[in-house]
Design brief:
508 residues, mainly alpha, Four Helix Bundle (Hemerythrin (Met), subunit A)
């Protein structure tokens, strides 16, 4: 029992770290751009300085940059050094992990896109209220450090961004991130397998409060939170619980709370979090009834929150083997690349801290070359920093087209996945079927987003056909979990029919 619990906690820790690696990498690069290219003055201007635009501007920038509540920590540390107001820092820190272009587009697959618009506006209300209150209750928290020395023009500026990211990853940022990941491991020790499957029912008045308690130590990437949101609406769960999980599960973590306590004091941090909980819970109950999906029959349970529970039963055999298998099966190609990059940067940072404790490399970056390159164009660091930030936003938008490929490619994937699911269900290969069903569901949602991105339109008819297919997939999943041979065969036939009708709706 102890072995399975320890293995389960470690598995949840590693899974969360893998999911966070791409956004941690982006957060490190953004922090490096702030430090080496924009500088303190440029960073303050980016966030509106001392004008009324500070809070909404922080909210907007947070919406566009693809970082999570772990990846945002290096950025917040640099904003703090630059003297950005505490309200703007916290506004950015809460908003950036909630939404990005890829996750917002995924929200279009919900029953009503108005939900995403409403949740976005509620997040703006939260960060505005929280930022305003913070700056009024705790003035004078914005204290800028001395401006860093200017880096010499040329390739040195680009190299200095990488060097800063490496040193930062090998420093306190990683400790705060590790604390944030510990919350996921602790939840797996407290929550037994599947214990949250009926924890957010629409008719449960305590659902938003209970999900708030779960979300406080939880960690989720923006995409993971949006997938959970979609599942909750598909199953007719509590909208208020979904909102609380999104804001607190994706927007905050224990590492972020520790960073705040270290920099602003324990009392201020506790007061701020108490106010945050009050605002989130109030809004959760406020949106619960108005945004409840119509015509959706509550399923009675959902697997959306299984990632916060223990992954193994207490008496499971060979938990370490199962853990390795789960990591291999779930590891996506972009996560593998990001893990390698983060590992390489971390190793470089550790090497720099050991081999260059006096920061001689930084002094070399700051030394102007006596003979500038013949074709070197001297641009201000703020211009390069602005281009870098715009480039990251553009990369995020470009990533939407990569993450949501053309419908023709998606239908080719769906054809293969459909065959895998139906074959596994018919041959009683239950584990294979359970592996492919969530992938099947995810591709149907990517199809809807891809159609919108490429101007093909997402009609109500197409939306309904995709929803029916997902309902049939869910029914098949239940029968496969229960090992019901005849029922699984009939459900797989229903999935095949629903798939053909969805293809016809898209003219395929």
């Amino acid at each position: 029992m102890i072995e399975s619990m320890a293995c389960g906690a470690l598995l949840r820790f590693v899974q969360a770290a893998i999911q966070a690696s791409p956004t941690i990498l982006i957060g490190l690069l953004v922090a490096g751009v702030f430090r080496r290219l924009l500088g303190h003055e440029g960073t303050r201007r980016l966030f509106g300085g001392d004008t009324w635009r500070t809070l909404p501007q922080a909210w907007l920038i947070g919406m566009l940059l693809p970082v999570c509540s772990l990846g945002v920590i290096p950025v917040l540390r640099e904003m703090r050094r630059a003297g950005v107001s505490g309200g703007a820092i916290l506004a950015f820190g809460l908003t950036a992990p909630l939404f990005n272009p890829i996750s917002v587009l995924y929200g279009l697959t919900l029953a009503d896109p108005l939900v995403i618009i409403s949740f976005s506006l509620c997040s703006l209300m939260i960060v505005t209220v929280m930022g305003f209150v913070w700056d009024r209750l705790f003035p004078g928290t914005a204290v800028a450090e001395p401006d860093p020395p200017r880096v010499a023009v040329g390739a040195k500026r680009m190299l200095s961004v990488a060097e800063f990211a490496a040193r930062d990853l090998a420093g306190p940022s990683t400790l705060y991130m590790g604390v944030g990941l510990v919350g996921v491991a602790l939840l797996s020790l407290v929550l037994p397998v599947g214990s949250l499957q009926s924890a957010a029912e629409a008719d449960d008045p305590w659902a938003p409060l209970f999900m708030t308690l779960v979300a406080i130590p939880a960690y989720a990437t923006p995409m993971t939170a949006m997938v959970q949101l979609a599942s909750m609406f598909q199953h007719g769960n509590s909208v208020g619980a979904a909102f609380a999980l999104l804001v607190l599960g994706a927007g905050a973590n224990l590492g972020l709370a520790c960073w705040m306590a270290r920099n602003y004091g324990v009392r201020r941090t506790l007061a701020w979090f108490a106010l945050l909980l009050a605002v989130v819970i109030g809004l959760a109950y406020g949106v619960d009834q108005p945004l409840r999906p119509r015509g959706v029959e509550p399923a009675g349970h959902t697997h959306a929150f299984d990632i916060y529970c223990a992954p193994f039963e207490p008496d499971v055999l060979e938990p370490w083997t199962l853990a390795v298998r789960q990591i291999r099966e779930k590891l996506a190609p972009h996560e593998m690349v990001a893990l390698f990059a983060v590992g390489l940067i971390g190793a470089a940072g550790a090497g720099l801290r050991i081999a260059d404790p006096l920061r001689r490399l930084e002094k070399w970056f700051e030394r102007e070359s006596p003979r500038p390159a013949k074709y070197d164009i001297r641009l201000p660091g703020t211009v390069l920093g602005g281009v870098a930030i715009v480039g990251l936003v553009g990369l995020s938008i470009f990533g939407c087209y990569v993450y949501y490929p053309p419908p023709s490619e998606i239908f080719e994937e769906l054809r293969l996945v459909n065959a895998e699911v139906l074959s596994a269900a018919s041959s009683r290969d239950w584990d294979t079927a359970l592996y492919w069903i969530p992938i099947y569901d995810d591709w149907t949602r990517k199809l809807q987003v891809s159609a919108v991105l490429r101007g093909e339109g997402l009609t109500d008819y197409r939306r309904i056909k995709a929803s029916i297919l997902r309902d049939k997939l869910e029914l098949l999943e239940h029968e496969v979990e229960d090992r019901e041979v005849e029922e699984a065969r009939e459900a797989s036939l229903a999935v095949g029919r629903a798939y053909r009708r969805m293809r016809a709706a898209y003219g395929r």
